[in-house]
Amino acid sequence: MTMQPAGTEVASRTMSIIDDLKGLEGPLLPILHEIQEEFGFVPKEALPVIAEALNISNAEVHGVVTFYHDYRNHPAGRHVLKVCRAEACQSMGGDAIAAQIQQRLGIGFHETAKDNSVTLEPVYCLGLCACSPSAMLDGEVIGRLDADKIDEIVEEIRR
To answer: Which positions are annotated as binding [2Fe-2S] cluster (predicted)?
Structure first.
């Protein structure tokens, strides 16, 4: 199980990131990306620290974090599987593929397996429209998903 950092540790590491990036034009997104890189997610304790440092409201920071689906509010599993939910993939059987993946892993989108092996996330285009349906496992794209490739993905996750 991944240990979540204590609140004061989150605040000090967050301030260090902010100090490095607040001079950028429009620093909120780069700061959030760096915080997620640092912690594996965007801890709720970081949001008021960011808001105060950038002189924006807590609601603005929260709104950005919840608007963009790539930000997580909890640690991800050891693997992250992103399944394309865009129209091209849907037209090539993506709904059935997504259902098979969810069934095989025993989790839904935006969930992490109880054994922390995988987090399943929807993504709205991987740029593999010609090879749809597609997914991405730990940053590696996989096109032309079918039952055999789903089996390979599940085996990789379970290792």
So the answer is: 84, 89, 125, 129
